[in-house]
Amino acid sequence: MKYIDTHCHLLFPYYDEDREEVLQKVNDELDLFIEIGGDLDNSQKVVDFIKNQPKAFGTVGIHPTDSEGFDINLIDKLEELAKNDKIVGIGETGLDFYWETNKQTQYKVFDAQVSIAEKLNKPLVLHIRDAYDEAYEFLKKSNLPSKLGVVHCFSDTWETAKKFLDLGFYLGFDGPITYPKNAELRKVVQQTPFERILPETDSPFLPPVPFRGKRNMPIYVKYVYEKIAEIKKIDIEELKSKLYFNTMSLFF
Asked: Which residues are annotated as a binding site?
């Protein structure tokens, strides 16, 4: 069994010069990967891209920091894209209050995507930054898909993690769990049940040790696996099996 990356952005310009070479390595070393949408144009590109990539699946969505530039009247187009058989989730969507953007617009676009996920029963891929409490309260009162979804690149406390786990969400862990100063985040990994963990890279962002400062790659997900295995004191092959099962359970 090989590795899985449930969250990457290979269509971003960071790969324009060597995308085919990167894809060759991904296909050699991974069992599957999920290309994540970030706005309407990018989501269309995701749908077109995954058609010709046997190991690729995708999501479509409007990232919260792109919500201000999104015409809510075009939400039907996103829903149509989401009906594609190889689209396995809605997102990344959520709330990001780190940047100065219109919070009410973020809520409106987030709510529209939650409705699509519930209607099509496809899981949400959540981007949450500096808004965990607000996102939790919003989701707690929303009509959610039965599969719920994943809190992508979880980066808060165990207390926060437990709230989302209790709702039924998975937690996605990325390169930051390998950073020396992130002991608290590793405690979250340690306490999170195996059956709620998903492996991610967020490539080209958040490269793990020993690649900090460089472009991240989906094949570097193995360093995330290795750190999880170390934290949880489990054999890497057994971990591969567990994370494969989790990926299948949520997205397929």
From this structure: 7, 9, 92, 127, 152, 202
